[in-house]
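Re: that chain you flagged

S.,

Sorry for the slow reply, it's been a week of failed gels. I finally had a moment to sit down with the sequence you sent. For the record, here it is as I used it:
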Amino acid sequence: MFYIQWYLISSLIIIAFWIDIRSRKIPNWLTVSGITSGVLYHLLSGGVDGILFSVYGLFLGFALLFIVYLMGALGAGDVKLFAAIGAITGTEFTLDSMIYAMIYAGIIGCFILLSRQQFVRKISAIFKLFYLFAIIKEVAIFTKLDKKQMIRFPFMWAVLPAVITCGMNWKGI
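Prediction finished late last night. Pasting the structure tokens below so you have them in one place:
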């Protein structure tokens, strides 16, 4: 049974990576297919427990990245992709993938800043922002960031290695 999950998640991530790199969008047909296949697989293989496993993963994947989306750091396709990852793999793998994706995204962002020779200036601005947040304690500070100054790259650059990293230790359900 584990192989079916691995096939589903691998197919989803490879197709999403390819499309996101080419068009910088993750289409709804792909995310809906991932969600549907994950929920159906777990319904058929685990009954009520299986569907709960899938739905919990779906909601975790969606909810946590929706917060990041509201800050303007990700696109809606990335949020829906993590909902699909959650539907296929459940909460633990999804949360681990998110953490690794954020780490990889930070590393990629640092490399981009270094290549543009903007590392010191941007990092100091980030520390000032977090210092201001610590004093004021207002989340709205993050929503007022100038989107033009943000480093932009396809999040799939970070998601693909994150899923591979998690997959190397994954035992399925």
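What I noticed first: The longest helix spans residues 28-70.

Talk soon,
D.
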